[in-house]
Amino acid sequence: MSFNIENRRYTGSKAKLSDWIFDLIGKECEGDIFLDIFAGTGVISANASKYFKKIIVNDFLYSNNIIYQAFFLDAKWDEEKVLNLIKKYNELNKEKLIENYFSKNFGNKYFSKTDSKIIGFIREDIETQNLNKKEKAILLASLIYSMDKIANTVGHYDAYRKKIKINDRFKLDIIRPLNMEVEIFQEDANLLAKKIIADIVYIDPPYNSRQYSRFYHVLENITNWKKPKLYGTALKPEPTEMSDYCRVTAPKKFEELINDLNCKYIVVSYNNTYDSKSNSSKNKIELDEIKNILEKKGVTKVFKKNHKHFNAGNTSFNNHQEFIFITRVNHG
Predict the structure, then answer these.
(1) For a disulfide at 111, which of 115, 121, 220, 273, Cβ 3.0-4.6 Å?
(2) Coil, helix or strand at residue 60
(3) Beta bridge mates, 136
(4) Residue 187's closest CA among 59, 89, 21?
(5) Among candidates 139, 92, 141, 137, which has minimal Cα distance to 118?
(6) DSSP code at position 285
(7) Kind and range of the H or E element at 122?
């Protein structure tokens, strides 16, 4: 099998809402340049390529940036070379594999011991191969998607499921790259907003206290491959790439972002998790704050849709709704 870009378990993914979002954008906005400034899985950017001439994609997580390079970067790559490596990795003699950084830390936790040895071996071996930027990105993205498919988690890496038998299930499958007219950034969205011009800016920031760099630390670790010291039950490294949108500073940061954007239209995704019973799920920016900030920038319309929200099992909230704000920016 092979993976499409939407085949990820990712908190807040808009894969199931994408058609609705682009239907609204098609009716309310016009232009050629689309900026996805908190791109996450990249699903919105991938779908935007059907409607816009140029896509700009940004996310501060390195694992997401590698996925964008793998799927979007319009560069030559040797498919035979990559497929031969994948075949080699899938035919490894499991009995002869020795312990490595990945298996010592994550074996019998997020993955079986054998699968962890395989994953660690593959990641180390990728570094020894003669690969161009696109080929390496495709192999790393394929590894991320293959890991994500079998991980002993509820969809993120804030914790692993305990007291269950973890079977050997790992198989490395390739992603299906896309070719797009794209610029790729890995920057703080608020800094990027000061230097980018676009027609339409799509904004889907984190709204609650759940830091994505902590949620996906295993994928960041395997992608960066700096082998940091890990701490706690969840085996996380020292905190890095912590977002101000997950703190009480969120409304201020959002207002700064909106004020600095140079565009014709602003499209904001928002959900009503501020009514959640879970403190970590409660939004740091509320609906009215979003609306008031956007209305200062231009004429703003609000659209809403009932949608089943990602639930890790500890959070309960009813009548979940997704909102889309579309602002036609005032100029002059």
Answers:
(1) 115
(2) coil
(3) none
(4) 59
(5) 92
(6) S
(7) helix 113-126
Distance CA 60, CA 187 (A): 5
- The mean pLDDT value of the chain amounts to 90
Residue % of the chain over a pLDDT of 70: 89
**From CA 59, how far away is CA 183, in angstroms rounded?**
12
**Residue 13 in tokens:** 């993914």
Please count the helices (runs of H) and the strands (runs of E) in the chain: 12, 9
From edge to edge, which strands make up the β-sheet containing 265-271? 182-185, 54-58, 33-36, 200-203, 265-271, 321-329, 298-306
116-130 pLDDT per residue, tens? 999 999 999 999 999
Lowest mean pLDDT segment, chosen from 63-77, 86-100, 116-130, 151-165: 151-165
Which token pair is 325?
A: 């704000």
What average pLDDT does this structure show over 34-42?
96
Look at residue 317 in the predicted model and tell me its pLDDT.
Answer: 46
CA quadruple 270, 267, 155, 310: dihedral positive or negative?
A: positive
The rounded distance, in Å, linking the Cα atoms of 310 and 332 is 41
What are phi and psi for residue 201, nearest 5 degrees? -115, 125
Query: Which string of DSSP letters, residue by residue, matches 150-184?
Result: H-SSSSSSS----SS---------EE------EEE
Distance separating alpha carbons of residues 112 and 10, to the nearest angstrom: 21
Percent with pLDDT over 90 in the chain: 75
φ, ψ for residue 271, nearest 5 deg? -125, 160
Maximal CA-CA distance, the chain:
69
Q: Is the dihedral of CA 240, 243, 249, 252 positive or negative?
A: positive
Whole-angstrom Cα distance, residue 264 to residue 272? Answer: 26
For the record, the structure tokens of 291 come out as 């609306």
Token pair 């889309």 is found at 324
Which structure tokens are listed for 80? 């035979």
β-bridge partners, 185: 58
Residue predicted with more confidence, 169 or 312: 169
- Residues 216 and 13: their CA atoms lie apart, in Å, by 14
What is the reported pTM? 0.91
